[in-house]
Design brief:
The radius of gyration is 23 Å and the shape is globular. The chain has a 3-stranded mixed β-sheet with strand order 3-5-4, with helices on both faces. The chain has a two-stranded antiparallel ribbon with strand order 1-2. The mean pLDDT is 96. The chain has a domain of 117 residues. It is mainly alpha-helical. The protein is built from 24 helices and 5 strands. It is 63% helix and 4% strand. A hairpin with a 2-residue loop joins strand 1 and strand 2. Helix 9 packs across helix 10, helix 15 crosses helix 22 and helix 17 crosses helix 18. This is Oligoendopeptidase F, putative.
């Protein structure tokens, strides 16, 4: 595939009128002008929700389209114009509507709206007019990162590759192939590093200004409020970092040492360690179960059919309705994600597949997000009650990576399936130190480092943390590359959104553990939790899924013991 498919283009098509504030202003004003008594609130909320869904729909489609066409200046300009001209007045109107709702005398929210009502109250208290226009700058800075990385290319052996295509070579059993690919990727990354450093300098200034405008001491304080983190503290996160350092890093170091021994290596160099896909101890070629995005869709459809008929039907809808764009190509953002179009309750998955088993795992992950959108959208009429708090939102995706494991006999031979299953379990162990490092870096950056921290200081802190959480990789002579490991999507695009992956990975392992003895019950609880959307607290969502909201040392130790047992 060399261009976005016709079905995808049709799905993302928007009338010109929807790109301007005039399409929304009168309806916002009508909501604001309504005489509102307590009895009138439910109908008024429904109207506001419908308008918000329409607005979110347009914003999401513009964002997805520009990510699919990073070299299209027109697509980038349309998105930026919407962010600059339409988003700010909508945010001001939303603030006015929240204040109107909060001032209604005698109104008591229904149980399924109580949490959203409390969040509205907290958001209204955090709102600052100065941060509205600053948000436009913030979005422009983040999009600069998307353009730089989306247009990045790698030259390898006279061939021009996308970043995902080059990364595929890192899975080769041939060390010389891996090393050549790693150096080519490093050269490409270092080529854009000065530009990314400048983007980060701008982002840090903008983010600290958000906090100052809100009268808060650090950007972490601001994020904690804006992300509604009420169920845990920064101290809990620091305890998690220490638990992973003490409980998981030694376990991963042991796996790596065994791998080095089996492969006859004195130690692992950077091209020998991919946390998403550890090398095969027998030196076998990585599993490549498909060649094209269409083949991956077909294989995945059969897996979902084996797991659950309704899940299969939802995936079938995505295939039929142009809600998947899977293959890697130039000018396409290299990250994978699931977007959401709320008007028709449609999730959209963007990926960059190149034919590996890892691609299959990522598809199950992203489609798990899609199931979350489908089920919460079906059950929750109000758009704010869909999806869930971010501490739960990765469970639908990560759990799907595990729940599909017993439905892949059509994809792999028994030996290959054992390898795929082992890779999934190794991935849990390898991921947790990375997640702890990412989270620790951001706590330092936005709460401990001085506001005028420099890029060399960022590099030095990353090196310090990487030596703590990944001490088993030999970077001799390559620390100038290692120091830029913080040049990662979430650092630029989703600040402080990373520990949630660890929380949800632990919960997903626990959910899979329950499914070993009660697969039908575990799947029923999974779907029931998704339907709750954002109407109950994070601990209640976890309980609905049949797991605990925990990420402490004892819990991590117990789950790692289970993972080791499954690997054996």
């Amino acid at each position: 595939m060399t261009a976005t498919s016709a079905a995808v283009r049709a799905k993302l098509g928007l009338p010109e009128s929807s790109l301007h504030w005039s399409a929304y202003e009168a309806r916002y004003q009508a909501l604001l002008d309504t005489d509102l008594a307590a009895a009138d609130v439910p109908a008024w909320l429904s109207d506001w929700s419908s308008l918000t869904a329409e607005f979110m729909d347009v914003a999401a489609k513009l964002s997805v389209y520009k990510d699919l066409h990073t070299a299209d200046d027109g697509a980038q300009a349309r998105y930026q114009a919407f962010v600059a001209d339409v988003v700010p007045p909508s945010e001001r109107m939303d603030q006015a509507l929240k204040e109107k709702l909060l001032a209604v005398p005698g109104y008591v929210p229904a149980p399924d709206f109580a949490l959203t009502y409390r969040r509205f109250r907290d958001e209204a208290a955090l709102f600052r007019e100065a941060n509205v226009d600053l948000g436009v700058t913030h979005q422009e800075q983040m999009n600069r990162h998307a353009v730089l990385t989306g247009n990045q290319e790698v030259t390898l052996g006279g061939e021009t590759l996308t970043i995902p295509q080059a990364r595929q070579r890192l899975d080769s059993p041939e060390r010389a192939v891996r090393e050549a690919a790693w150096h080519a990727l490093a050269e490409s990354n270092l080529g854009v590093a000065p530009d990314l450093d400048r983007v980060m300098e701008g982002l840090m200034g903008t983010r600290w200004q958000f906090a100052r405008n809100a009268g808060l001491g650090t950007y972490r304080d601001y994020v904690w409020k804006s992300l509604d983190r009420v169920d845990y503290t920064p101290e809990d996160c620091r305890d998690f970092h220490g638990a992973v350092r003490d409980e998981v890093v030694p376990l991963l170091s042991g796996l790596v040492a065994d791998l080095s021994r089996d492969l006859g290596l004195e130690g692992l160099r950077p091209w020998d360690y991919n946390r998403n896909n550890l090398l095969d101890a027998q030196g076998r070629k990585s599993l490549e179960p498909f060649r094209t995005g269409e083949e991956l869709e077909t294989l995945s459809a059969t897996a979902f059919a084996g797991l659950d008929g309704d899940l299969a039907a939802r995936f079938g809808q995505m295939r039929r309705d142009g809600l998947l764009d899977l293959e890697s190509r130039p000018g396409k953002m290299t990250h994978a994600y699931c977007a959401y179009f709320p008007v028709r309750n449609e999730p959209f998955v963007l990926m960059n597949v190149v034919g590996t088993a890892e691609d299959m795992r990522v598809l199950f992950h992203e489609v798990g997000h899609a199931f979350h959108g489908f089920y919460s959208g079906d059950a929750q009429p109000l758009v704010w009650n869909r999806w869930s708090p971010i501490e739960f939102v990765e469970i639908p995706s990560m759990a799907m990576e595990f729940l599909t494991l017993d439905h892949l006999a059509h994809v792999f031979s028994p030996e290959e399936l054992a390898r795929y299953r082992s890779k999934q379990l190794e991935g849990v162990i390898a991921f947790l130190p990375w997640a702890a490092q990412m989270d620790a870096f951001q706590h330092w950056l936005y709460a401990e480092a001085p506001e005028n921290v420099t890029v060399p200081e960022l590099d030095a802190k990353w090196l310090e943390l990487d030596r703590t959480f990944h001490p088993f990789v030999d970077w001799d002579g390559l620390d100038h590359v290692r120091a830029k490991g913080w040049h990662y999507y979430h650092i630029f695009q989703a600040p402080f959104y990373y520990i949630e992956y660890a929380m949800c990975y632990l919960a997903s392992v626990a959910l899979w553990r329950a499914a070993q003895t009660d697969p039908e019950g575990a799947l029923d609880r999974y779907k029931a939790a998704l339907r709750l959307g954002s109407t109950v607290s994070v601990p209640e969502l976890y309980r609905a899924a049949g797991v605990e909201f925990r990420f402490d040392r004892e819990y991590i130790r117990g789950l790692m013991a289970f993972v080791r047992g499954q690997m054996n």
